[in-house]
Amino acid sequence: MRYTRAISIYAAFLSLMAFGVVLWTSGCGSPKEVAPANPTTWTCAMHPQVRQDGPGKCPICGMNLTAIRSEETNKAGKGSTSTEPMDTSSDVPGHATVMIPGELQQRIGVRVGRVERGPLKMSVNALGIVQPDETRVARINIKTEGWVDKLFVNFVGQAVHKGDPLLSIYSPQFLSTQQELLNSLRAERTLGGGQQPLSEAARRRLELWDVPPDEIDQLVRTGQPHKELVLKSPINGTVLERNVFERQYVTPEKELYVIGDLATVWVQANVYEYEIPHVELGQPATVTIPSLPDRQFTGKVVFVRPTVEEVTRTVQVRIELPNQEGIFKPGMFAQISIRHPMGDGLLVPTSAVLQTGERNIAYRVEPGDHFVPVAVKISPIQFGDCYQILEGLKEGEQIVTSANFLVDSESRIRLGGGGMAGMNHGEHGGNKTPAKDNAGHEGQQKPATDRSGNEGTDMPGMDDSKTQP
Questions:
Q1: The pairing of beta strand 165-170 with beta strand 354-355
Q2: Do 168 and 245 belong to one domain?
Q3: Tens digits of per-residue pLDDT, 94-110?
């Protein structure tokens, strides 16, 4: 029996040795450190609180889920797999420093610019209307009365030259005045110089009726009065208005024609009250028109109205513009731009500054794909497509110029524990105070259920830890 028990003990010892060999060959008892698992998590770029172990669609918006690795979402520096929390503190309340990997920057359209020093040119831009130069406009009236016998200029837009006939009028007064002049001259020759004042008065009356002196001389020389009075154009120009027809009876108060010399035109524009200090007489102005967007024309400021329109808070500014080619037509829209040099300063694109109402924020780019929110002070004047930086940034610093709304959203979400897919989310810098439910227990209240029956919310600041893997 002793021999049998010894054999049993020896067999059990051999069994234990064999099990040890199996353990040693399988590596379970190896002193080497086992490499940590690197699971893949799938999440939604629009709703980062949605997390699951496999691919699929977001239950909230229906977008395809994006794969991210735990080491990608926890690395704190380039090539690092450390799980140490990243420093997210910033000087802007409610915003945190964020780290966005380069691949994700390209995916969301992040663009980077630089703070540069350049000339400050205040641009006053306004929409104007082309009008004739009022100092080059002639309004044609008759100084007697009568019936229109014939029109020599029949339509608006017809070009005329100085001295061209416009229309002829049969006027009994004109005919009687000519006859009075001839009778006075005959009396002077017959009776001597006693009738001279009468002839001078008749001649003067004809001159006031715009009868040319050569026609009066011809009347005296021939002794044949003219039946019709012919009105002629006093200037070179274009007919802008025609208010007369043949066989029409006209009087002195009737305006027959309006003729304008369009070799020079005005552009009347309304400039806002706050921009008036940057507009001065004699300043050059650049003018463009919709029909020729690739061409620019240069005029100058010739008048600034001394009063402000109370309703629109604008001031009328007049630009004088050469128009020898006849490109500008009265009534045409024109865009004016007046530049006022104001030295130099630090400039950034307008897209680089987020105006929240409480403060102006820009995102400075630092090594390691870090984006730091910075409160900046900008000038109240916009210089073209740029803002002048008065405080907050230095020359040469890199800033975000595109997709900064997404960066800003991530900066705010970090303090609430959420974030975009693929971004570094370590320990956030904000402290959340647990809410109390209706029963008085501390803790996050249960999120509301959306229309699809899914619990949760994609609003920044909500605790999504229950959906975290």
A1: unpaired
A2: yes
A3: 888 888 888 888 888 99
